[in-house]
Design brief:
The protein is α/β, with parallel strands linked by helices. The protein has eleven helices and five strands. The protein has helices at 12-23, 37-47, 63-72, 92-98, 110-121, 129-139, 150-157, 162-172, 177-184, 188-202, 207-216; strands at 3-8, 28-34, 51-55, 79-84, 102-105. Helix 4 links the parallel strand 4 and strand 5 (102-105). The protein starts with a strand and ends in a 7-residue tail after the last helix.
Length: 223
């Protein structure tokens, strides 16, 4: 199945460059472009892409607000992959909380770009341990209002079983289903079931939000 991609960036060279790289892949097709966040939201409704490559700093409507609108629309199945120039962009953490499924550096190679699109399209989150843990550690400090108070978050994750809590912690540490299965010595299908139950119990969209939740709930200590 071909993965349909929308590129939202206010820089023409970035849009054109990514379009060329992605259209060269046999399983990926760039179906549209947007020059700002407002247009991105509209194009998602028109084109129903599988993945949106979303720049953060754009005119009219920034990538964070655009991501929030796209994720909040029940009919939109598009996954948002945030584009950033720096791996510690101060707005990336906010974008993850808004519902983005991960982030990618703009200087990523063609292979990294294509692999990132495939990972997000498959329903996984782009959570590279070396970058995501550092990002969450640094920018959780900047969140003006945490999604949940510590007490509320502890009450929420109290509904998880001991094994589900263990899996949630490993998700926050950036491990894939296969890596978690190996760590816990169980089948990968079992981990997939645990992940699905975690998301349902916590009311979360995907693994990225699960990782952010784990940090905010103090299940994982930054650093």
């Amino acid at each position: 199945m071909t993965i349909r991609v929308l590129i939202a960036d206010d820089q023409m060279m970035v849009r054109e460059g990514f379009s060329v790289l992605l259209n060269a892949m046999p399983d990926i097709e760039v179906v549209g472009e947007a020059v700002n966040g407002r247009e991105a939201v509209e194009r998602v409704r028109e084109l129903a892409p599988d993945v949106v490559l979303m720049d953060i700093r754009m005119p009219e409507l920034n990538g964070i607000e655009a991501t929030r609108e796209i994720v909040a629309t029940a009919d939109d199945h598009a996954k948002v992959l945030v584009l950033t120039t720096f791996d510690l962009d101060e707005y990336v953490y906010q974008a993850l909380r808004a519902g983005a499924s991960g982030f990618l550096l703009k200087d990523a190679s063609a292979r990294q770009l294509a692999d990132g699109v495939r990972v997000v399209a498959s329903g996984e989150a782009l959570l590279a341990p070396s970058v995501t843990r550092r990002l969450i550690t640094e920018f959780s400090k900047l969140a003006e209002t945490p999604r949940l108070s510590v007490a509320a978050s502890q009450e929420a994750y109290g509904e998880l079983t001991e094994r589900e809590t263990e899996v949630l912690v490993l998700i926050a540490q950036g491990l894939s289903n296969a890596e978690i299965a190996e760590r816990l010595v169980v089948a990968e299908s079992t981990i997939k079931t645990h992940v699905s139950r975690i998301l349902v119990k916590l009311g979360l969209r995907d693994r990225t939000q699960a990782a952010v939740f784990a940090y905010e709930a103090r299940l994982v200590t930054p650093g």
